[in-house]
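Continuing the series of single-chain predictions for the mutant panel. This is the parent chain; the variants come on the following pages.
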Amino acid sequence: MLTKKELPACPVATTVGLIGNKWRLLILRNLLAGPNRFGELRKTIPGISQKVLTDNLRSMEEDGIIIRTVFAEVPPRVEYKLSELGDTMRPIIAAMESWGLGYQKVMKNSSN
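Parent structure:
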């Protein structure tokens, strides 16, 4: 997690730094629907490698956006879910979804 001194002065830059790559946005999208295991995330995010998913999950956990829970089972089960802080990003993702739907509609209508 960034210290107060390391945070950008611009709040938009702070947000972009936390969710500014396509993989993090897709991870957030999935976790907004509920907790997911690593394999579920990997299956539902086409093109993401195991290493990239692991790196992004670790970083998001360090940033306080997600919570990783390890269950003491055989075989071990690990589950990821949004933290309270991560859940506050729900309106951002919803706005992006709404804008994307509108854009898709405009583009479909313009190609007719």
